Amino acid sequence: MTMPLFSAKLINYNIYDRNDRVDLMLSFDSAYQGKISQKKEGEFALLSFEGLEAKEELKSLNSKLINKIQISSKNNATHIMFQTKEKLNFSLSTINDKFGLRIRALPEGANLPSLSQPIKQEVDKQNDLMPKPKDIESYDYTNYILVMLVLMLLLIVLWWLKKTNVNSKNFGGIKFQRNIDRNNQLVILDYENKRYVLIIGNSNLLLESKEIPQEEAKVNEENFNSFFENNKRKIQNIILEKQKKA
Q1: Which of 70, 104, 187, 189 gives 81 a disulfide partner, CB atoms 3.0 to 4.6 angstroms apart?
Q2: Residue 3 and residue 7: Cα distance in Å, rounded?
Q3: Which residue ranges traverse the bilayer (predicted)?
Q4: Per-residue pLDDT tens for 10-55?
């Protein structure tokens, strides 16, 4: 049985900037039970949440305490980076039966509220997670840009093939397509006596390219459904492996 990559997902967040503090409110799709660690280095503070999934975010603040807040996911964890204007302390408080979490940033020396969630201090670990000051605005955006460029290029190629070869025997068109999940789709198309099996979406992959045997020139929907169901788990595993390496 395949275990989920993440135990919870960050579905929403809100930032409340006050004169004496900054509160970051997190909302999860399920109760978050993972471990949280903290690291500070110069003007940066990093909170790491094991077993939490989140989308890439970068927010600039007009705050006395914090310049930027960045959220990213890597290695089965979510990392929240604070670029601060002065030394700060952070306290965590769970809300809504652990379906939410409040992160409060206060200047060092200020009275911290009682913690309902301890933060593990890390000094020598996670050095690779701390970006340099000049890199914070472009941190972890390369993969996203590459994926979007590949997807756009693939769509342009498919559009061109369909427009220029719609009446040609070389282009057999898109034979079948089926959603694998909400972010990816399995597509089978024929071109120049070859059959291509692709994944299009967040993960853009060419799974197979082969000559079309005479007996397979006409593929019916029943055969495709059988192929899809027999290989669905394998395809999902391929997508997960690519996401792990990203």
Answers
A1: 70
A2: 9
A3: 141-161
A4: 999 999 998 899 999 999 998 898 899 999 888 899 999 999 999 9
For residue 37, the domain's CATH number is: 2.60.40.3470
Q: How many CA atoms lie within 13 A of 63 on its CB side?
A: 26
Alpha carbons 57 and 64: distance in angstroms, whole number = 21
pLDDT digits (tens, 9 = 90+) for 196-226: 787 777 777 777 777 776 655 555 556 666 6
Mean pLDDT over 171-200 rounds to: 73
Structure token pair of residue 3:
């275990």
Whole-angstrom distance, CA of residue 182 vs CA of residue 194 = 28
The sign of the CA dihedral 232, 238, 239, 240 is positive
Tokens representing 216 are 């397979």
- Domain enclosing residue 221, as ranges: 144-245
Q: Are residues 175 and 130 in the same domain?
A: no
CA–CA separation, 81 vs 111, rounded Å?
Answer: 22
Pairing of strands 8-17, 52-53: parallel
Instruction: Take residue 23 and report the two structure tokens written for it.
Output: 């509160």
How far apart CA 137 and CA 141 sit, in angstroms, is 9
Which of 140, 156, 174 lies at the terminal end of a domain, its last residue?
140
